[in-house]
Write a structure and sequence with these properties.
This protein is an alpha/beta fold and 457 residues long. The chain folds into three domains: 121 residues, Gyrase A, domain 2; 129 residues, Four Helix Bundle (Hemerythrin (Met), subunit A), CATH 1.20.120; 164 residues, P-loop containing nucleotide triphosphate hydrolases (Rossmann fold), CATH 3.40.50.300. Helix content is 46%, strand content 18%. The protein binds guanosine-5'-diphosphate and zinc ion. Guanosine-5'-diphosphate (GDP) binds next to helix 8. Its cofactor is K(+).
Length: 457
């Protein structure tokens, strides 16, 4: 990455046609560089303006007026990056935005790398690493719960939790080593009970956080979901009910859904990546067979199976085969066509599947029941968006390792090992937590975090 002293610039709005486009400039020379391209309507230089002020004028490039613009001035340290920042808002076309950026670069700024603004904010102590990562999660959020969770983490929910565990462990470790190093001095003794107590508290907090990871993934990334059932049970109709518009082909002829139809829908606060499959029946039709094979494969690997049954027909071999699969993956059994007379023996399904709901997809009845069942199975009914959740592999690895080390410390104590051994494990745990928040993190890890960002963030 470029060194910290250069002034960087990038287009910070999405690239495309929009009402406005924002070119962000950050660094010591940001205001001076902006003054070189921006002509204030009242003639006043940005350099003579206070922070948090705006000016209206135009961008000048190659002795011509390029566009009207508004300049927002932020002065270090009161800006996103903690440096001097100017944001030039112009019209949001691709050509205009790029020309303004070009003018800014010619005036002395360097193109910003992916995530470089946020990286600078982190290096300047504006954000810890979990908060920086949350910026990206906010940008990519596709649902209210995803956005709210990310916002809480951005506001420090995760940082505070981790710091409180870390401070607790630190104080025990510090006591232990002071006590070991200066036994003759009058340092308050640490009792085994105090250490046990701190370890137990840390173990509880860290385990709870680990649990939030899977829930967070369901909210953020979504769950690979397969809708399966024998031909004509109403899979396509169900899919339409979930996605809210006609996407699958609904027909009366069994086997019409030849291929895997995919769609991403928000069911309650869970993102489902749905595929409506061809039926699982044996077939000689070549095209249909490809669909069936593909469906079987997806079924075995899916995160959630919506197994659909027809209330108006007795269970057949295909249904029984589906029930066998259902016993092996997280499943919601959906009994469809409750508007028709019951022929199906529900006790057979009850003996195989725990979550069963009844709907009439054609009448649009039962979506709520599906939402409830999906949120329960994904665990998001337990999600408290104001609580911090683990949102990526990096954080999960740190918490997992810290948890293992605290457990080791506790075990060492139980086995009557020396306090030195306990301290070593506690210090391992602490260093994992320091790495997680970015207080003690290698450059490589930091670079990796910010390279996942896009340019302009
Ligand atoms: P798929 O082959 O499993 O995808 O089934 P479809 O969704 O294509 O539906 C097959 C037929 O069942 C269509 O004629 C639907 O209108 C009908 N159907 C779907 N859901 C219901 C329902 O809840 N009640 C009734 N009476 N018919 C339904
Ligand atoms: Zn279908």
């Amino acid at each position: 990455m470029n060194d910290q002293n250069t002034t960087i610039a990038a287009i910070s709005t999405a690239q495309g046609e929009g009402g406005i486009g924002v070119i962000r400039i950050s660094g010591e020379r940001a205001i001076e560089i902006a003054d070189a391209v921006f002509k204030n309507i009242n003639g006043k230089k940005l350099a003579d303006m206070k922070g948090y002020t705006a000016a209206y004028g135009s961008i000048q490039y190659e002795n011509e007026k390029l566009d009207e613009a508004v300049a927002l001035v932020f002065r270090a340290p009161h800006s996103y990056t903690g440096e001097n920042v100017v944001e030039l808002s112009c019209h949001g076309g691709i050509y205009i935005s790029r020309q303004v950026l070009r003018a800014v670069l010619e005036a002395g700024a360097k193109p910003a790398e992916a995530g470089e603004f946020t990286k600078r904010a982190f290096l300047n102590g504006k954000l810890d690493l979990t908060e920086a990562e949350a910026v990206m999660d906010i940008i990519s959020a596709k649902s209210r719960s995803a956005a709210r969770s990310a916002l809480s983490v951005k506001d420090g929910a995760l940082r505070r939790k981790i710091n409180s565990v870390k401070d607790d462990l630190l104080s025990i470790a510090a006591h232990l080593s002071a006590w070991a190093d200066y036994p003759e001095e009058d340092i308050a003794e640490v009792t085994d009970e105090m250490i046990f107590d701190s370890c137990d508290k840390a173990i509880a907090a860290l385990s709870h956080l680990l649990d939030t990871y899977d829930i967070g993934q369901a909210v953020k990334q979504g769950i690979d979901t397969v809708i399966a059932g024998r031909p004509n049970v109403g899979k396509s109709t169900l899919m339409n009910l979930l996605s809210g518009y006609e996407k699958s082909i609904v027909t009366d002829i069994p086997g019409t859904t030849r291929d895997v139809v995919e769609d991403t829908v928000l069911v309650g606060n869970v993102l489902l990546r749905l595929s409506d499959t061809a039926g699982l029946r044996d077939t000689d039709d070549k095209v249909e067979k490809i669909g069936v094979d593909r469906a079987k494969k997806r079924l075995e690997q899916c995160g959630l199976l919506l197994a659909v049954f027809d209330n108006s027909r007795e269970l057949d071999d295909d249904d029984m085969q589906l029930l066998e699969t259902a016993a092996q993956v997280p499943t919601i059994a959906i009994i469809n066509k409750t508007d028709l007379e019951n022929q199906l023996d529900i006790t057979v399904i009850e003996s195989k599947v725990k979550n069963i709901i009844t709907i009439s997809a054609a009448r649009g009845e039962g979506r709520e029941a599906i939402v409830e069942a999906v949120e329960k199975i994904a665990g998001t009914d337990r999600l408290n968006p104001s609580e911090g959740i683990l949102s990526n592999e990096r954080q999960r690895a740190n918490v997992r390792n810290a948890l293992a080390s605290v457990r080791e410390a506790k075990a060492a104590l139980e086995m009557g090992m020396t306090y030195d051994a306990v301290t070593v494990s506690l210090e391992d745990a602490i260093s994992e937590l320091l790495e997680m928040t970015g207080e003690k993190t290698g450059d490589e890890v930091i670079d990796r975090v910010f390279h996942n960002f896009c340019v302009g963030k």
